[in-house]
Amino acid sequence: MEQESLRPGERITRTIRQRLHLRGELMLAALPTATVLLVLFLVETLSEQRLLFASLASSAFLIYMDPEHGTNRVRTLVISQLGAAVLGLAAFMMLGPGYTGAALSMVATILVMILSDAVHPPAVSTALSFSLRAGDESNIALFAIAVAITAGLVVMQRAAVWMLARYSARH
To answer: What is the number of domains present in the chain?
Structure first.
């Protein structure tokens, strides 16, 4: 059984992606930067649990590096990040903040990612953030909105890479 989430993107796109000039790289980096800033603004406006969203910054820049990679597909991102958040919060609620809950949520997240073929490494940080957090505030709904915004980034980055590939082919 081939694992979709571990498969690199299409070779033609990856080859073109590796040869972008500085302006092209900055254009591709603008989308994840704007996405992370939007998520930070959303979190700052609605919550005080800023660190819960740090792993989404890693997700955004993995998407920038290789939007075609299986690790960065919308399905993979959503299943792994939301699953990790739920598992981390469950560990926190059952065991409180501490290493036992953190270890349990991390191992459970890795198992869920492997079994569902949705391997997205920043999700491990999400599980740890939710399981180790301090305070009573629950941010699953806000985190889901932030994941949806990041999933939109996948679509935008793929479109940007496609447009840059077409532009590069013409010139």
So the answer is: 1
